[in-house]
Write a structure and sequence with these properties.
The structure holds two protein chains of two kinds. Chain A is of the alpha/beta class. Chain A has 18 helices and 27 strands. Chain B folds into two domains: about 190 residues, Rossmann fold, CATH 3.40.50.620; about 90 residues, no CATH class. Classes of the chains: A alpha/beta, B alpha/beta. Chains A and B meet through helix 1, helix 2, helix 4, helix 5 and strand 2 of A and helix 1, helix 2, helix 3, helix 8 and helix 9 of B. Bound molecules: guanosine-5'-triphosphate and magnesium ion (MG).
Chain lengths: ~650, ~300
Amino acid sequence: MTTKSYEVQQSEQITNDIEGYLHDQEHKNFLRFITCGSVDDGKSTLIGRLLYDSKLIFEDQMASLENDSKKVGTQGGDIDFALLVDGLAAEREQGITIDVAYRFFATDKRKFIVADTPGHEQYTRNMATGASSADAAVILIDARKGILTQTRRHSFIVNLLGIRHAVVAVNKMDLMDYSQEVFQNIEAEYREFAENLDFLTITFVPMSALKGDNIMTPSDKMPWHDGPAFMSVLENIDVARKKAEKPFRMPVQWVNRPNLDFRGFSGTISSGTVKPGDTVIVLPSGKVSNVKSIVTYDGNLDQASADQAVTLTLEDEIDVSRGDVIAEINQRPETTDQFQAHIIWMGEQPMLPGRPYLIKTTNKTVAGEISALKHKVNVNSLEHEAGKTLALNEVGLCNISLDEAIAFEAYRDNPAMGAFIVIDKISNATVGAGMIDFGLRRATNVHWQAVDVDKTARAEQKRQKPVVLWFTGLSASGKSTIANLVEKKLHALGKHTYLLDGDNVRHGLNRDLGFVDADRVENIRRVGEVSKLMIDAGLIVLTAFISPFRAERRMVRDMMEPHEFIEVFVDTPLEICEKRDPKGLYKKARSGEIKNFTGYDSPYEPPERADIHLHTAEMTAAEAADAVIAKIEEKYQEV
Amino acid sequence: MTSHTQLAHLQRLEAESIHIMREVAATCENPVMLYSIGKDSGVMMHLALKAFYPSKLPFPILHVDTTWKFREMIEFREKFAAEHQLDLITHINQEGVAMGMGPFSHGSAVHTDVMKTQGLKQALDKYGFDAAFGGARRDEEKSRAKERIFSFRSAQHRWDPKSQRPELWNIYNNRIQKGESMRVFPLSNWTELDIWQYIHQENIPIVPLYLAKKRPVVERDGMLVMVDDDRMPMKPGEEPEMKMVRFRTLGCYPLTGAVESTATTVIEIIQEMLLTKTSERQGRAIDKDSNASMEQKKQEGYF
Ligand SMILES: Nc1nc2c(ncn2[C@@H]2O[C@H](COP(=O)(O)OP(=O)(O)OP(=O)(O)O)[C@@H](O)[C@H]2O)c(=O)[nH]1
Ligand SMILES: [Mg+2]
């Protein structure tokens, strides 16, 4: 069936059976996709071509396109299809795309929303904007240039944003004599690169967007290509997500209270299906009720599913507000105030761990911070790299800690429950886009198996306030020695204590960890979690770990209640530690026998405001221990 | 079970628009909905009624009246506002009125700027609105296709197309400083066909001018202008002619071209539209004034 006869058929149906035609339109399958790839690969030209070939350009628009092509076109007066999408004055002047354009078109099989995105690295965030709502990505490659950094960057980012279907359009084949070899080489290279990505389908199409080869129909210039033309690839991508079959979640957007007798909770269902009578839990509060009714302007519904915007009323008068999530009771999402997430940084200013930002999820804005940058991703090699900050357009894996708990799911499992943006508190700019991987700890008030004998009860029985005394400092600075003395004194005072020492823990609990940055972070995280359990048991915990990074110490601090974490900085100059060298480690580090040794080839970040600062060069270990005890007593008064 | 697993096209659009409106109501301090009386405004109002049901609209409605709207539009507005008990604010730029502003005396560009763009800014400043809903769609025009759903405006109401905030998923950043504001476009992803189809499906009332009827028109610069009142000066030899016409968009009557048509029902409009070969903005004088003119107007604060 050619396009022509489809058109004639369509006109006939519009004339004779308009209701039937509209019904078909209404239930047509639907695809949102983007075009991306490097600068000038022909993305906008391709979209212009699609609009033109699907007869979406009206006569008046065509006349102004011809006019514009002569004035500002890149094709020497011939039609420049990119001008159909590059709608901003600055874009037309420079012949590039700056921001994403959303266009709509349809074929007899499908309706499409396409976002044409910019290739320039500078505008990567605009590409991500387009990609965030798309189900498929058309990645353009200029046949003359092959795969470029920007091709890889875009592929990685769209994949990170959850796009599982890629169409690799090898464009400008007209300039390479429609050579099969050129196409095959690019295909092979891309396939190799994509091994490290997570696409479900990748389809390769050789084409010329400018000349229209292989766009709507297979091109006779490339008889060697036996796959379908581009449009037919788009029409057949299967993106069914089955959102409605997942567990029910509805983030509450707005509390609907027209009068004292009605209290409804309005929101868009992110996944699953809900019916009156269903038992639901409200998170993070953990309150439980049953759905009374599903209210809409068009009458109450028997059920509602993913993507519908509805208003729920509940059987019980429980407290629910914007920011809460109403969820299926048996398969509830987790709640946490700390999680790990991938972040695409979009701010002109770099991302700084520890700096306060606002985190906005689909229905809640919470103050928080990026407590640690675990690693950056090199978009070219996809390798992990250490780093302290994320610059514009960089991607990293981060720990985030919030001032309040949120209900969430991994972005992979449920994008609507796992996505967030980062907002700069001063400029209000959107500076990052985040995708949650998993929670780092569960919020205290939910899920935590509530027991009658709790932390307070245990602590009271021991007549003490549980805390962790976190000793940090260089190797051989005296952490263990001082901690040991402090523990003895506390014990003598009748306190219940436990000392977690670096070396001992590494023999057992953390035997599987080495000394690279990621392992050091994990080492500390586990010690933090163990300390937390011991605090819960009512103990006074002493830890002696180098714990060189501020961000990790901060992470542990964030795990505890505010007064439970006491940071003790054992401040001993490097020269003194080197001289002491009780385990001969400095010697080995000097000779290169051991790597990543703190103070040598791995940094030590001293605390900025330690709770207790011990200048060991000026005191004996016993004096230092006394100073710690004095400080704790002082702290107890405060608490 | 498709009806339960995948929403139909208009259902999906409807849900998206409702989500956007609720987001504004929940997070903005003093929002307003711009109401132009046109078909898009009609759809937007209808969606707002749905979004907040059973509550009434949690914000007022603003019509910036240029004093040159079709008379039938004003009648329609009054009836509509009364019927839905809307909190309707009508703003007229009185400075413009004092200057005797009009498209015939001052030209379309100056008239639109003073009565519409300046009038709108006046009203937004006067009431201190921090967010204003508009019914613009991305398929209308090439610079609109580039605009965000939540579109930031400086304290001077300017749009900066070159540094728009990233807008990911349906998570909208509407944080602003004092004086700044947001324009919010809940119909961004609707097309002209969607609008008409929705009007048809939901039985949304529209100004009768959209439907063909014999009306007095004169042809000027290739545009059919309806003689709506006696403020329209006739050129020598000009004589209003009764023609079967309708309007694809509605604005100031001297600036809105009619099209000859026999479509007297919504379904006939849809049929005509599907088979036509010109775009809807073609009938607007304002778009032709200068190249890339919509982008420029938008930068200056036009909706
Ligand atoms: N010969 C040839 N030229 C093409 C083809 N496709 C695009 N071009 C030309 O390549 C240039 C860049 O095209 P655009 O469509 O603007 O490229 P783009 O990928 O949208 O660029 P950005 O959005 O700025 O990244 C223009 O001069 C096009 O006319 C093609 O298939 N063959
Ligand atoms: Mg482009």
